């Protein structure tokens, strides 16, 4: 750690900052979290004048969003700490952003959007459960684990995947959403690869802070379906391991994109991008991209639009507009891919929020045109850009023919109808 860095302790059970005590394996440490705060200047935070639509629209529909707004504010306070270096830092390194807390803020917002409960998700209680996993390993630890570094890391994996019974869920949709939220994974022991990677890295970071881990470790993030995240000694890493190293930026993106994919309200035709699915539903009565839609595809698109027109915004296999919008808004705040503004725009279009939809579609086009990267020219990208132009034309026509007065009221915007949160 450089001399410019300082250490602060964020306790669960203590109100004042405390130093880390020396510990022995038979004497587990108290439960509090430590973060390293760099003294170097941070880059400007993401823009806060984007005026996202979700919370305001829900409020106008009579839904209390006070807990959701607090959770979003806390999420933003975490990602404001992301510097360029921080974004590319491995999740195994203890730095400014508390990834466990950030993941729980994501869960807390979504829970408040779909739950009828007047109480917020107890973030601190679940953080304590996360730290209890690390403390539990201290009682499981014995000197034989230190016979080699490989044995030590293997003992942590056995503790997590055998003794504690965590296993990887294959869920990719709303049928099993608990695998995508940290608090549910801690409760049910079943989680996505990214959630298991987060939990594994949190244990490693705490063991390092308590002095049990004294060498550099990486998490091998599996890209195959059955694989489990596993720890390995960084000094023995190979070049082929690089694509499997999860950075802070990648982890946050993966969490949010998993949610976006699971709750996207247009679940038909999985071969297409999410944007094209929504664009299909927006123009399903016409010729699309120069050819007639197949009967099955047209029927699926019409059915999706019919559900939205009736206010059925959520249901197993039909997505959830509220959580899809919240994932899009948080991805935009991460300022990673301008396509997130495009995807957000098409969802706003389906909500009848035409003025906001046009605003974000223009922001997407402006950001894309100023990007130094070469545009992609594959077939899907060409179809997407064609759909963007058609959506832009449609929104311009709405503005000319109706103005924004009629469209300023949300059309059947999702409240708590047909809610199936977990």
UniProtKB/TrEMBL annotation:
Domain Protein SirB1 N-terminal: 127-207
Pfam family, one: Transglut_core2
Name listed for the protein in its UniProt record: Protein SirB1 N-terminal domain-containing protein
Native source species: Hibiscus trionum
């Amino acid at each position: 750690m450089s001399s410019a860095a300082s250490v602060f302790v964020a306790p669960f059970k203590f109100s004042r900052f405390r130093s880390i005590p020396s510990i022995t394996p038979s004497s587990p440490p108290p439960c509090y979290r430590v973060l390293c705060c760099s003294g170097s200047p941070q880059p400007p935070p993401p823009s806060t004048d984007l005026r996202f639509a979700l919370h305001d629209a829900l409020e106008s529909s009579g839904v209390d969003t006070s807990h959701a707004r607090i959770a979003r504010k806390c999420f933003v306070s975490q990602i404001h700490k992301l510097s360029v270096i921080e974004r590319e830092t491995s999740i195994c390194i203890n730095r400014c952003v508390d990834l466990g807390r950030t993941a729980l803020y994501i869960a807390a917002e979504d829970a408040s959007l779909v739950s009828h409960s007047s109480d917020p998700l107890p973030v601190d209680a679940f953080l304590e459960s996360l730290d209890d996993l690390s403390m539990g390993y201290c009682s499981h630890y014995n000197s034989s684990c230190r016979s080699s570094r490989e044995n030590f890391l293997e003992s942590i994996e056995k503790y997590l995947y055998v003794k504690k019974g965590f296993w990887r869920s294959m869920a990719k949709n709303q049928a099993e959403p608990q695998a995508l939220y940290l608090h549910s994974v801690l409760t049910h022991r079943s989680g996505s690869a990214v959630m298991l990677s987060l939990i594994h890295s949190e244990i490693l970071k705490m063991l390092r802070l308590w002095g049990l881990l004294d060498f550099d470790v990486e998490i091998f993030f599996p890209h195959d379906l059955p694989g489990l995240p596993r720890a390995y000694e960084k000094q023995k890493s190979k070049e082929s391991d690089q694509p499997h190293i999860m950075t802070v930026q990648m982890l946050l993106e993966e969490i949010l994109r998993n949610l976006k994919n699971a709750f996207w309200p247009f679940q038909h035709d999985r071969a297409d991008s999410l944007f094209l699915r929504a664009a299909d539903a927006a123009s399903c009565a016409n010729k699309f991209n120069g050819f007639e839609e197949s009967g099955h595809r047209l029927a699926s698109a019409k059915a999706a639009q019919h559900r939205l027109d009736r206010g059925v915004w959520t249901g197993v296999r039909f997505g959830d507009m509220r959580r899809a919008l919240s994932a899009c808004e948080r991805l935009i705040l991460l300022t990673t891919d301008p396509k997130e503004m495009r995807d957000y725009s098409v969802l706003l279009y389906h909500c009848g929020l035409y003025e906001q939809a046009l605003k974000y579609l223009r922001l997407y086009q402006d950001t894309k045109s100023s990007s130094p990267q070469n545009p992609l020219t594959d077939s899907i990208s060409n179809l997407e850009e064609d759909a963007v132009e058609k959506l832009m034309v449609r929104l311009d026509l709405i503005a000319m023919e109706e103005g924004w007065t009629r469209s300023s009221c949300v059309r059947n915007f999702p409240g708590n109808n047909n809610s199936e949160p977990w």
